Amino acid sequence: MSEHTPQPVPGAEPGPLTQTVPPMPATEPAPVAGTVPAVPATEPEPVVETVLPVPVTQTAPVAETVPPRPAAEPAPAGAEPVALLPVPEQPGDPLTSPSAQPLVPDADVLAGHGDAEAPARPPRRKLRAVARWTAALLVFAAFGGAAAYGVTQPERTHIPGLRTPDDGRYTYPPVALPRLPSGSPRPLASSNTAGIHYADVRSLLLPAPVTATADPAFPGAKGFLPTKDFLKTFDLGSQWFVDDAATIARDAGLRHIAARAWTMPDGTRTEVYLLQFITAGYAETYQDDMQGMTLKAAPEASEDVGPQRTGVPVGVSVDGQAEDKPYGAAAVKFARLRSGDVVGLVVQTRKGALGAVPEVPFEQTVRLQAQLLG
């Protein structure tokens, strides 16, 4: 009997090959449990070995082809059936032992390893990053809250850096514009073509600072200053010229003069004069004349633009002057103002031994007076 090498059937899973036993004659059924019954004396026809594919779930190594056993010689008629002894297989041969484990993993198993998703690794890095940022935010929030609490608890004067440095400005009492008669416009209103201040001009005087000492020679809110006393602040020469200047002022439409003066603890003296005229036109003419009059305390002076830089209402003119060095008996700064029918004069002096007139309080005083006239 010739050997026949089995070929794999297309589309079928490869599986282990088994030995094919030639079928027995159809007249006698094949015995079970490995016994071979008696066969007739006639020579059986050779049977072509057929290899049937056995579907399996796992791939096993292909064993070497084992030649089929020759058919048993026919036993004489009437003989007892003889049991066939099993042929022992070579132990330990992984190529021929069907029970041996495959040396090469199954293709399906290998494919499965490639397709199967690996178990997701817990996102520890992300969790750690989130935890770190959360901890940092909590720390910053804690420090910020503690700092805010510490800043708000003590008094402002006890916190370094928050105290306003003393720049020499004066502390004035609350300043407010006086109440106007019913239906009267403001002096700079478009409907007030004459520019008249309908409020009492004495109520427009800047009050003295809190720590100042008032000069009783000036009437303040109690009365008006004589024109001749006002003209003594200028270098007019003899008394005849003073009297003549007073007459000129009355003829120029001067109605009355409000005045106030005070001295600060540092020795700086302030004098404020408000001259009210019949209309704004008269006031403008007298202002031009007064610019040609030399202040007795400052025979030589130059322009000081500080008072008119900021804080002056629109429509109020300010002309600042500062005494030139070397100072005389006292350093002097003064400013001429005009708003409607009122001409103002603010003079600050300081004894020469104390130095120049402080800039900040001078500008502060001029601006506040200009705002009261606006």
UniProtKB/TrEMBL annotation:
The chain crosses the membrane at residues 130-151. It comes from the Bacteria. Keywords: Membrane, Transmembrane, Transmembrane helix. Residues 1-38, 83-123 are annotated as: Disordered. This is Uncharacterized protein. It comes from Actinacidiphila guanduensis. Residues 29-38 have a biased composition (Low complexity).
